[in-house]
Amino acid sequence: MEIAITTAADEAELRSLYLWLRDDARVRRDARVELRAEQPVPGRMGSAFDVVQLVLDSGFQLGNLALAWAAWRATRPAPPEITFERDGVKVTLSGQDPETAARLLAELER
Questions:
Q1: Residue closest to 85 by CA, chosen among 60, 53, 58
Q2: Can you give the pTM of this predicted structure?
Q3: pLDDT tens-digit profile of 52-78?
Q4: Are 93 and 104 spatial neighbours (Cβ–Cβ below 8 Å)?
């Protein structure tokens, strides 16, 4: 399974989340975390947009992703909305607690 993670916030926030996920042992155990650039949208100014790509093994638990996200979010002075997408299904997290985030992220498995 692959999950793309994006934000409309500052690129630095997405890079921060990338580093956090990459260093989280629960995530790293069953997932490969990569920072990728998407091609810019025609007609838009600017360079490529960064996307965090998670490539998950079959043993990966989305609850671990929710916990890692919540821990990262707690370190942010003004946590941005983060969107997780898999096969066209999008889940956006902002101020949810870890349990609610885990329930929302479970939608990505459907």
A1: 53
A2: 0.85
A3: 999 998 888 888 999 999 999 999 988
A4: yes
